[in-house]
Amino acid sequence: MGTLIQNGTVVNADGTRKADLLIEDGKISEVRAGIDTAGHTTVDATGLLVIPGGIDAHTHMDMPFGGTVSADDFLTGTRADAIGGTTTTVDFAIQARGTRMRDALDIWRGKADGKACIDYGLHMIVTDLGSDNGEQGLADMDDMVRESVVSFKLFMAYPNVLMVDDGTIFKALQQTAKNGALVCMHAENGSAIDVIVQQALAEGKTAPIYHALTRPTKAEAEAVHRSIALAEMAGVPVYIVHLSSEDALNQVREARDRGLPAFAETCPQYLLLSIEDQMPGKSFEEAKYVFTPPLREKKNQPKLWDGLVHDHLQVVSTDHCPFCFADQKQLGKDDFTKIPNGGPGVENRLQLLYHFGVNAGKITLERFVEITSTAPARIFGMYPKKGVLAKGADADVVLWDPNAEHLISASTHNMRCDFSMFEGWKVKGNAAKVFSRGELVADNGKYIAATGRGQYLRREARGGAWQ
Ligand code: URP
Ligand code: ZN
Ligand code: ZN
């Protein structure tokens, strides 16, 4: 007895066709036209698109930052994920300086297990390789790979907090040549930015807009260039997270043109929001748009869309890291450096990309599926279990209604955040039914499954086998 999704239009990254899709024991057992209904529960998908569940490769649930903690925990955040059509998330565990990576993994598994509503994986943020020339930290990286933590994030920004030096980055990159993992880079020149920030504060520039104005695109481009150069020297791939500007994109494009395995993601906020529209420099309300890298000038947006079309950018993730305006963003009322960095996004990622990407004719339906699901599955070691509608894959399936209209608002969204970065925006196209491992978890905007049902994902190191 299975669940048979009938009469839909099945969309994968490599093509679209009219077909039925049969789910048995949590897996997809068949995709073809005219599957016999006998013995199965049927779901009519007439007029709907059938797409692989979204994969968000970059979220921060329950994350300590700047004296507070991101407002969504793994329950509220992944429940909102499911409602928006995302069935897999990869969050970040943070190795506190002076501690072992396993400590961080245990802490983050403790935050997620029993709460996550969708399947989840973890990247490890490396802050410290230890004092013995890095031997212990590098062995810890191998240990993490055995625990399915097959991707690491290193920071070139946030001096004295998360930033590591080039030697640490290079050693970590070299280690991935041995263990097959992938290094993800937060690429901004933190030391130079810190100088600009201190100069701004000394001049009394404390409003939120100065967060953006003290982080020039050149500081991002320089760090992207350095990341790729270090990875090239180590002979390994590298993945740039939350790429925000044309200057930075040019560095990735140039590397890929030379045949290097350089990958990058951007986020809806960089594709759709801008300094001009969201941060005119008039009020503290603009703290809602303080995240890092910051919002950029509008002229960057078409370049990022173009990057997605031509595969200079491979993934759109959210960098979901919500802090409420009323009691968290206010921490930086008199000093922009104290505004917790980040914003909410998981619930709206697919809606925004579908509406402003597919409906607007910027990207094809197949590319929409690729950048929101298939590519992150491949890059982060989950393919073909996730990211594709094919026999044997987990039945993470979204019935997408291309005609459903939705008004984005904090008053109705399910993320635990008192504002939306897209308040009042109208989108067309929304998740109607969402299946996770064959279970109907969200139905027309309501989460209907048990909380905590999400499983920790066994991910595989790619070991150099890149797209
Ligand atoms: O502002 C941001 N992006 N907050 C989350 C931390 C990070 O750097 O991704
Ligand atoms: Zn980052
Ligand atoms: Zn992030």
Low-confidence stretches: none
Strand segment count: 19
Rg, nearest Å: 21 Å
Amount of helix: 25-40%
Each distinct ligand = N-(aminocarbonyl)-beta-alanine, zinc ion
Query: Count of helices?
Result: 13
Distance N to C terminus: 37 Å
Based on Cα principal axes, name the global outline: globular
Q: How much is the average pLDDT?
A: 98
In percent terms, what proportion of residues is strand? 15-25%
Largest sheet: 9 strands, mixed
Structural class: alpha/beta
What does this structure look like?
This protein has 467 residues and is an alpha/beta fold. Helix content is 30%, strand content 23%. It contains 13 helices and 19 strands. Strands 1, 2, 3, 4, 5, 16, 17, 18 and 19 form a nine-stranded mixed beta sheet that branches. It has an eight-stranded parallel beta sheet with strand order 6-9-10-11-12-13-14-15. The protein has a two-stranded antiparallel sheet with strand order 7-8. A hairpin with a 2-residue loop joins strand 7 and strand 8. The longest helix has 18 residues. The protein starts with a strand and ends in a 20-residue tail after the last strand. 57% of the residues are buried. The site of one zinc ion (ZN) has 3 residues, from loops.
Defining traits:
alpha/beta; 8-stranded parallel beta sheet; binds zinc ion; binds N-(aminocarbonyl)-beta-alanine; 30% helix; 9-stranded mixed beta sheet; 467 residues
In short:
The protein has helices spanning 74-83, 101-112, 135-146, 166-179, 190-202, 209-213, 217-234, 246-257, 268-272, 275-278, 300-309, 349-359, 365-379, and strands at 3-12, 15-24, 27-32, 41-44, 49-52, 54-59, 64-65, 68-69, 86-94, 119-125, 151-155, 182-186, 238-240, 262-266, 315-316, 397-407, 426-436, 439-443, 446-447. The chain is α/β, with parallel strands linked by helices and 467 residues long. The chain is globular.
